Amino acid sequence: MTPPATHTRIVLARRPRGVPEEDDFRAEKTAIPAPGPGEVLVRTVHLSLDPYVRGTLTGRDLGHAPVAPGDLVPGRAVAQVVDTGAWVLAETGWQEYAAVPASSLRPVEVPPGVPRTAALGALGMPGLTAYAAVTRLLRPEPGDTVVVSAAAGAVGGTAGQLAALAGARTVAIAGGPDKCRVAVERLGYAAAVDRHAPDWTEALADACPDGVDGYLHMAGGAVLEGVLDRLAPGGRVVLCGLPDHANETGHTVLPAGAVMRARATVHGLVVYDHQDLAPRFAERVGRLVAEGRLRLLEDAHEGLTSAPAAFRRLMTGANVGKSIVHVAPEPAPRRRRRP
What we know:
Strands 3, 4, 5, 6, 7, 14 and 15 form a 7-stranded mixed β-sheet that branches. A 6-stranded parallel β-sheet has the order 10-9-8-11-12-13, sandwiched between helices. It is of the alpha/beta class. It folds into 2 domains: 6-117 and 296-326, Quinone Oxidoreductase, Chain A, domain 1 (Alpha-Beta Complex); 125-290, NAD(P)-binding Rossmann-like Domain (Rossmann fold). The chain has helices at 52-56, 125-138, 154-165, 177-185, 200-207, 221-228, 243-246, 256-262, 278-290, 307-315, and strands spanning 6-12, 25-31, 39-48, 77-81, 87-90, 97-101, 106-107, 145-149, 169-174, 191-194, 212-217, 231-239, 265-268, 298-302, 322-326. α2 (125-138) crosses α3. Residues 18-325 form the Enoyl reductase (ER) domain.
């Protein structure tokens, strides 16, 4: 694989105010980076777009350094090592080629017949987040009612399926009738509630007549308040995503009265605290995906320059499935020569 002399990368043009705009980013043509000692050159093929990136743009993310105007936007990708063609997971950032420490690379491991992009979604960080939320914190039992907001997203889509496989009755909260339809027809939720509907709390009550035993929260403050008002005694709540805070458009306030009334338990979930689950997660969820018992859903975009618009789509909650940018096509497999 011979790289070109130049490539495209996307940098932060200005700090976003509220939901990111496409003009908050800028595409640049630069020379291909030269690997230093201990580094290798990789070609970005599939780029993951993740909500944590929004926090880096204002220096508020828990696990990543702040991004200043002019800096490369961070991101993980399925990539190929230029010298060997090996498929790896790499922190490439939003660029077509990256020089990265060889020690930081991880092989892309997906079951036969499963697309490599699954390593960025259900078999990657979003999947581990969902697995930790369901198996360690929500702990659904057969017959429990589990509600998931952002239910058609990367984490929510996986979490809902895992909870259903554990025997729970799952209820989706999603934005709009189309996403509600996807949640039921493709992700297996028993019911779905459109959070944009004026009577969504009444619809939630109808969908959860015995209350909510477990709730995975990744929506705005109004949704948190509406769901916690339906908590069953001993309910479990997992706070996984706070888009109001991420986009700096408001503050989510925990309704303490509802928590006390239900004698509920509330957990704050940061995936980095649950890395010990990674081997068990990879084995179990990998098997479920390989057997077709856990479905993959992707919100795919073509070309690196589509990343800013795709990221805005993600941060407004318009995506359906894991947000992926196909930066480059996968090379066709080599045909074996007949003897």
